[in-house]
């Protein structure tokens, strides 16, 4: 079956033409590194921080597919909370957005094609949500494949932002393993709902996608809040198909390591370069080479320079920002190590590793940094969730997996208590969090659309930066020379 019946985007009456933004300078690159180095061969650490340009009220339309578990375990309160969460999503979307709903139980069903979300279609979409009834088994893989096919078969795809939101409350007991479904260049955001789902499967699906995250929603009352955070990101995508290429300068430097989470990296041994692909990035996130409105923008190359001197330099003394990023990367690695230990029933070793990570944070220079506070909160919560093997199996493992995808993507992911740790949350996410809380209390109350949110933000601060920062840690060796040395030539490759 072909799903090429996606609806066209028809401007609402009296809306006027929607301008296409021209954004050749929409993302910018800043490097943070030591500007002096000794004459002899040495290693330098560089933090590349990519940020966006001025704010704009124009954005690309979103094609969103919601893949929803309606198996028998969703009976009662769960299905009602899911309906409320989906109604929030529908009411936030605007006429430039399209929504398709896919449900799965024994098999998957596409409830509706990609429909333009207008004043006329909103009640119809809400009616489809109200009509959902749970029953049957759990075939996550069929739901995922159907959702991906909806996007793959579109007639209208150019310049569109895409996303899949997949939620499940249970163990897959039908179909092929969902972790083995090829996803391609689509972000899939997964949500583990309740206490009986398999976090390993949902985490794998998110990690296999381009930029997706795995969120933990233990409290059934907070599904709307979790959905709101994902939606806030998708509705503020700044640019698409972004890449960063970090290259050596011949006979002057060698790239030893590029740390960019688990975004795909490709190496060119002859050129001595590393290219990282990011897919789509949100407002308040960043990168350097991108597409907008279907057009490719090549960013000009930038060069990181280091002046050589015969002065004595303290060993391994990078700038504070670099040290803080190193602390984040180290903490994320130790969380992963602790999870592996706990998975192997070595709970005491896992707790020791988390305590070691806590102690390491106290050695970082910038003690008052909000990022360090978020890391401390994360480690404290994980220590609570590893107090027994049973607690770890039910709550600790999902929390750790969600933490890992969040750090690897530098993107917010709910970890149970959505409000206590806001690591990587954007201002729009903060706004939608409050809106979702109020919507849960009164779903009939008026709710501003995404376009109204944009207009308010631009009116409040028209020159607010769109994006930043997302950071990339680079380690490079520079040779023993006595001149101003080029360390890294950072250029954008065409896609």
Automatic annotation (TrEMBL):
Every copy of the VWFA domain together lies at 63-231
One short Pfam name that applies is: VWA
Q: Which InterPro entries match?
A: CLCR, Vwaint_dom, VWF_A, vWFA_dom_sf
Q: Which domain of life is it from?
A: Eukaryota
Q: Which PROSITE patterns match?
A: VWFA
Region feature Disordered, mapped onto this chain: 1-21
Q: Where is the composition biased (Pro residues)?
A: 9-21
Q: Which SMART domains match?
A: VWA
Task: Tell me what this protein is called.
Answer: VWFA domain-containing protein
The record lists the organism as Urochloa decumbens
């Amino acid at each position: 079956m072909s799903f090429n019946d996606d609806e066209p985007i028809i401007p609402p009456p009296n809306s006027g033409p929607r301008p296409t933004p021209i954004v050749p300078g929409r993302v910018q690159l800043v490097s943070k590194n030591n500007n002096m180095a000794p004459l002899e061969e040495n290693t330098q650490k560089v933090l590349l921080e990519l940020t966006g340009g001025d704010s704009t009220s124009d954005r690309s339309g979103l094609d969103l597919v919601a893949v929803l578990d309606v198996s028998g375990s969703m009976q009662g309160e769960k299905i009602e909370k899911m309906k409320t969460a989906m109604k929030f999503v529908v009411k936030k979307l605007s006429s430039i957005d399209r929504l398709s709903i896919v449900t799965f139980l024994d098999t998957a069903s596409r409830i509706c094609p990609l429909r333009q979300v207008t004043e006329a279609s909103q009640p119809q979409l809400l009616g489809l949500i109200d009509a959902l009834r749970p029953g049957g088994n759990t075939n996550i893989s069929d739901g995922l494949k159907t959702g991906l096919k909806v996007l793959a078969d579109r007639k209208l795809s150019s310049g569109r932002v895409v996303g899949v939101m997949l939620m499940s409350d249970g163990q897959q007991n039908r179909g092929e393993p969902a972790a083995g479904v090829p996803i391609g260049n689509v972000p899939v955001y997964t949500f583990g709902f309740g206490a009986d789902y398999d976090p390993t499967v949902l985490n794998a699906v998110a990690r296999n996608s381009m930029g997706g995250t795995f969120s933990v929603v233990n409290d059934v009352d907070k599904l709307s809040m979790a959905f709101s955070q994902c939606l806030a990101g998708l509705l503020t995508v700044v640019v698409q198909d972004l890449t960063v290429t970090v290259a050596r300068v011949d006979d002057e430097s060698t790239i030893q390591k590029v740390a960019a989470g688990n975004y795909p990296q490709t190496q060119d041994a002859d050129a001595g370069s590393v290219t990282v692909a990011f897919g789509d990035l949100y407002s308040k996130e960043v990168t350097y080479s991108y597409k907008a409105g279907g057009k490719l923008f090549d960013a000009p190359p930038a060069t990181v320079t280091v002046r050589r001197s015969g002065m004595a330099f303290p060993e391994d003394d990078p700038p504070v920002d670099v040290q803080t990023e190193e602390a984040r990367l180290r903490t994320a690695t130790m969380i992963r190590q602790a999870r592996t230990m706990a998975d192997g029933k070595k709970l005491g070793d896992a707790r020791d590793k988390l305590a070691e990570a806590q102690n390491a944070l106290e050695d970082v220079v910038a003690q008052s940094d909000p990022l360090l506070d978020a890391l401390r909160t994360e480690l404290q919560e994980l220590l609570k969730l590893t107090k027994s093997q049973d607690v770890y199996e039910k709550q600790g493992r999902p929390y750790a997996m969600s933490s890992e995808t969040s750090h690897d993507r530098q993107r917010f992911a709910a970890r149970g208590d959505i409000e206590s740790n806001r690591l990587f949350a954007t201002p729009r996410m903060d706004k939608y969090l409050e809106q979702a809380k109020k919507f849960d209390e009164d779903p009939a109350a008026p709710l501003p659309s995404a376009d109204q949110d944009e207009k308010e933000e631009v009116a409040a601060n028209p020159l607010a930066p769109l994006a930043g920062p997302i950071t990339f840690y680079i380690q490079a060796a520079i040779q023993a020379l006595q001149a101003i040395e080029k360390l890294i030539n950072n250029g954008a490759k065409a896609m």
